[in-house]
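[audit] Reproducing an earlier prediction to check determinism. Same input, same settings, fresh worker. If the tokens differ from the archived copy the diff job will pick it up downstream; this log only records the rerun itself.
[audit] input (232 residues):
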Amino acid sequence: MTKNPASSPDLNLTRDPRQDARAQKQARKIRDIFVSTLKHGLLIFVGMFFAVPFLWMLLTSFKSDKDVFHTPPRWLPHDAVRVEINGQEYPLYNVKTSDGVKQYAALKIESGVAYFVDPAEPDVVIPTELQQGTERVAELVEEVSFRWQNYPDAMNRGSRPGVGASFWVYFKNSLIIAFFMIVGTLVSNTPVAYAFARLKFPGRDFLFILVLATMMLPFQVTMIPIYLLFND
């Protein structure tokens, strides 16, 4: 009896090489996506160690002195909500009263006693103890507020008109020093690097190790000698 070649199990189990190539390509693509995602995730995680402190510093620069030391710390800058009474602005408080919580303006606070007024009836002064037992009866009303004035204040605070010094003078001096330091470093280091890399001379390896050793010293080791050098 003649066996039909089409029904041979060996022929039926034969796989198409193109299918294997597509499967390998698909597996490689999935692996590349996974590796790329893992790399980017690791870079983002490590980058957060640098980005978060910078972001905190940037947001803190818009805070008031009181808000900087607020406990617990807050990311966004907050400032007291103020109301104008008789031409002057006063901070607003949420005050617990027998009729519920009301918003009063604090004229002044002395020895734990706040002198509140209702903005609708500014002629009636309401003395209130801020701390009654373990309960605080008044909380400052705050809102998210960026103090853009902090930057002009910082620039003007260091000004000394008598000697012609100001923030912009300090800024200009810093730019000049940084420019010449960078140019001097490039001009002096380029021939040294070329000599170590291309030229052969006696003691080259020893000098190269010596240069590397001085570069690896932490700043804390040279900080005091540098201070004494410039101080003298």
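[audit] rerun output stored. Observation attached for the diff report: Residues 17-60 form the longest helix (44 residues).
[audit] end
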